[in-house]
């Protein structure tokens, strides 16, 4: 499943590296006690530190450190026992300090990896280069006043984890799978809520193109993409743009570009700044951050079962396909729901119901797994009735719809509506006799070799019994009668 773009001069490969800014789940900021809740009135969550009043000093938030270590461990990454906060200097109206406190040469987390689950069931390993902690900036608001810009400092000083991948991705689909998987891991860990619409997870994509076998060419960085779909569109557009530039004899320039979702294109924002432009130096207000082995070990011992391990367990214990298992474990709540339904039941049947009818109804009604249209216990009850032959799989779909509408259990619906499957062969025989008598012409055709009509007879019998006849019994009796 390789992604190759055919140009006039031959095939081109796309090289993608992603920088994800993930907001740390924490009630207060990285270096101040101000709150971080989303959607608060502008400038209502700003301490003197966040506003950079003279003489204010940053105080590290211990929880944010723990969350970064937790994330590093979840990404199977190197935890650096000594890391250093550095000042990244630049001027911007929403950055009152005149610098961002970040980490540069010595980040808290080093190399790790993320395993991608592709749609065809295959996996890909993407390297993590580093994870560092840094402050978010404030926000400039340009639509509040006809001639003035406003600043909201609520976000100023909020803790971010910048997670940098290696340039290991080769298609927009892989980039999408990477963000989806990273988001899933962060949510399992409880270190970032992954809410892209609220800006808790923002994505910058470094994109370049090359011919097969070449080294890396110049890349352009697409800034702040806030949805997975836009990320794919932006990468695809940008790769094709660069190929056009090369094929017309030009050179791609290293720059920062913005994705315009309305036009579906990227456009130049500014020429790329280099690390030396920021005049990084260790922040003299903060000591180096030194972690203890015990501290890291304790956090490691408290990690939950993560998506990859859960997926392996689902494939091993429940004999699910890697694809099905990957879908079920993407959200922790979905995995738990499935396991409740599957407990003591046929796991494949449970999987089909959870991923099939249940998910379809949940999406149709705009519900979520935390607020399901039918509880896991009730869905399990429905599956029990299929397994013990009380109802057929077809009637089960009907029962399920009524359960969704009424909130009643499967057993109650079957009882009330008289949907119990007919397995009594006498009753089924009578229905079959009636169908055959009413379709004498088709019976003759069948007997002269038109085998395909068998399905027609089954359909008629099921119709005559309102779908309640046991299909296996119908097949058996029908075969005997038609042969006779
Ligand atoms: Mn950053």
What characteristics describe this protein?
binds manganese (II) ion; 3 domains; alpha+beta; three-stranded antiparallel β-sheet; 484 residues; nine-stranded mixed β-sheet; 15 helices; Arc Repressor Mutant, subunit A
Give structural notes.
This protein has 484 residues and is an alpha+beta fold. The chain has 3 domains: 296 residues, no CATH class; 113 residues, no CATH class; 59 residues, Orthogonal Bundle (Arc Repressor Mutant, subunit A). It contains 15 helices and 16 strands. Strands 1, 2, 6, 7, 10, 11, 12, 13 and 14 form a 9-stranded mixed beta sheet that branches. Strands 5-4-15 form a 3-stranded antiparallel beta sheet, with no helix packed on it. Strands 3-16 form a two-stranded antiparallel ribbon. Helix 7 packs parallel to helix 9, helix 12 packs across helix 15 and helix 14 crosses helix 15. The longest helix is centred in the middle third of the chain and has 20 residues. The model has no long low-confidence stretch (mean pLDDT 94). The site of manganese (II) ion has 3 residues, from loops.
Radius of gyration of CA atoms, rounded to a whole number: 30 Å
Can you summarize the main beta sheet?
Answer: 9 strands, mixed
Range of helix content: 25-40%
The coarse silhouette is elongated
Hetero ligands: manganese (II) ion
What is the rounded distance between the termini? 53 Å
Helix segment tally: 15
Overall pLDDT level:
94
Low-confidence stretches: none
The class by helix and strand makeup works out as alpha+beta
Number of domains: 3
Strand portion, in percent? 15-25%
Task: Work out the number of β strands.
Answer: 16
